[in-house]
Amino acid sequence: MQWLDLNESTSIILDQIIQKINEGVNVVDTDGNIIYVNENSANYADTSIENMLGKHITEFYPNAAVLKVLDFKKKYTNIHVENPDGRHFIVNAYPLIIDDQIKGGLAIFRDITELKMMNSKILNLQEKLINTSSSNIFNDFIGSQGSLKEVVNKACKAMGSPGGPRHSIISGETGTGKTYLAKLMYRFAKNIGVLKEDAPFVHINCAQFTNPDIAASEIFGSKKGSFTGASNKNGLIEQANKGVLFLDEAHALKNYQNLLLKVIEEQKVRRIGGIKEIPVDVIVIAASTKDLEENLLPELYQRLAQYELVLPPFDQRSYSEKEKMFLHFKEEYKKSALEKYDFDLEIMFEPEARERLLNASYKRNVRHFKNVINYAIDSATPLINNLDNKKLMILVKNEHIPQKILAESRNNNYQSEVKENNSNSENAEELIKFYREKGFGARRIATRLQEKGIDLKYYQVSYRLKKMDL
What we know:
- The structure is a single chain.
- By secondary structure, the chain is of the alpha/beta class.
- It folds into 4 domains: 8-114, 2-Layer Sandwich (Beta-Lactamase); 134-312, 3-Layer(aba) Sandwich (Rossmann fold); 315-401, Helicase, Ruva Protein, domain 3, CATH 1.10.8; 408-467, no CATH class.
- It is built from 19 helices and 16 strands.
- GO terms for molecular function: ATP binding.
- Residues 411-438 form a coiled coil.
- Residues 141-378 form the Sigma-54 factor interaction domain.
């Protein structure tokens, strides 16, 4: 480094320091020729320091970031560089300026090849851990052991039967989890080896297309000139090859149903305007809020409906399943907040507020339920810029729940109580009549009723006996 004015002892000390650090160090002149390297750099390049000096940096590091410093005269930090031999480096590169003139460039870098490989292995292990078994996969679907048990069994059969996999239809109201179920079926198919790990999942919302030509181009692909503005393009069916094609809102696919039928029957797709038939192998899952039997060609419906999976609306889910969803969405809110902000967070609901949420009706089902929970927590939470400390305790009350939801919850509770009271009343009268015919008196009848869980005192039974003319 002849342009540095250093005495001999200082130069020796500096060299010893640089040779001892863990990173590689390269110094080049304005032409990119190496004028100084340390031992780590030589080891990375699988050569010696002597062999590197005086030669151009690209002989050893073809994608050297330090050359950008010479071109643009500014520093570059944390640049990821990959060598042709497959080695990966993180590089910091700086211009060397003396008396306002650039004299060369300095690169300090570390080999992260092993770290990258280790990270890749960790990601693979995490993926395998997530997909350890089919039961674990569908356990994420709340109700898989309850109201949705039959649906999950059918989903497994559709993907995992020896003669399969089979095409299927998922039906249900908006927000019941149709897309989520389709993705779980896809994960299950990969887990059991029906699909490869890199198999695609292509989601098409058929309702998003208003122009039938554009819809056909997106789904089936197109050949240039087939219609105004058309270009050579592979469609979503081709992109789903060897994987899952998820047709969401399939009832909206008004046109080209015959082409889709041809794809399913012959396992070939022809782009719009083209003549070449392209082989494809896809599992089709169609979902809809409407009756697909009334909206699809009979032949297409028959091909798709090999398995029909019907998801119940939120109101038909059991109370325990609603509770699990409630806890899941509460924890999901907390997790999302903690990923963005560093504080202690605790979310609590007053018992009455919790019951109001669980007993309300939700027109958009599970998705609507989740949105209302998020709204209630938001309403009870101060804005992030108004937090005084690192500990945040949120208490959700009735006042934080949307008024419409509160009103629906009260109405549902009233109707439930009326129904229960009527049922108990009718049941009680039948039992009173039964025991009276056996000769029991009011006190003895009251005792038998209480044993059956009907809380009527003897004088109340006596009143009913008179009213029933018994």
